Each structure stands twice: as C-alpha cells, then as structure tokens.
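Section 3.1: Structural characterization of target chains.
Under the original work plan, the team committed to producing a structural model for every single-chain target entering the pipeline before any wet-lab resources were allocated. The record below documents one such target. The sequence was received from the expression subgroup and is listed exactly as submitted; it comprises 115 residues.
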Amino acid sequence: QVQLVESGGGLVQPGGSLRLSCTCSRSTSSIYRMGWYRQAPGKQRELVATLTNGGTTTYKDSVKGRFTISRDNAKNTVYLQMNSLKPEDTAVYYCNVVIFGVDYWGRGTQVTVSS
C-alpha cells in the first residue's frame, strides 16, 4: 500500500507564497511521474503540475511562471512552490503518483488565498 501525506497548506494573502510537500511511503526513485492536482469547491479536480524522474515538467497554463514542482528522491518527497498566489488558486491540493498503472492520492491540503 502506498501512502502520500501532504503538508504546507494554509491561508495566505494574494501575492504571497506557500510551499507544499508530499511525502511518499515508498521510495520515489523508481516512480516515473509525480504530480499535484487541485479541486476548488464545485469544480472538477484539475492537473496543476507534474514531474517525471527524467526532469520533464508540465504545468497548468494559469500557474506557469508562478508555480514550480520539484522532487527529492532521497527524502521520497515532491514539492510545489507557489508564488504570486491569487484568489483563484484557492483549492484543496492533492499529491498524485502512478505506480504500475495504479493512481495513488493523498488526502489533500487546503490552500486559501484571501485578504
């Protein structure tokens, strides 16, 4: 069983920054792709960013230039650095990994951007 635990969410003012962390219960060195998704109230879950173990990244258009995904395989952790946060970034953020075709999800961490 793979467990993912997110942390780092919270309340931040517009223009502020947060760094989300997601620690995996197994070694991430062999996991091809790790990613972050988010779900705002009343909306579908959407992809925010992904990172392969080869270093290839993908980002939702609206977060390009503001968010950065990274991973530390020595710590079995993937990060999402979020800068210049906007109210529309408010959502529950979920960590995701795919192992042998099976999706695993964390329980999510709330990010609220509000003045």
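The longest strand covers residues 91-99.
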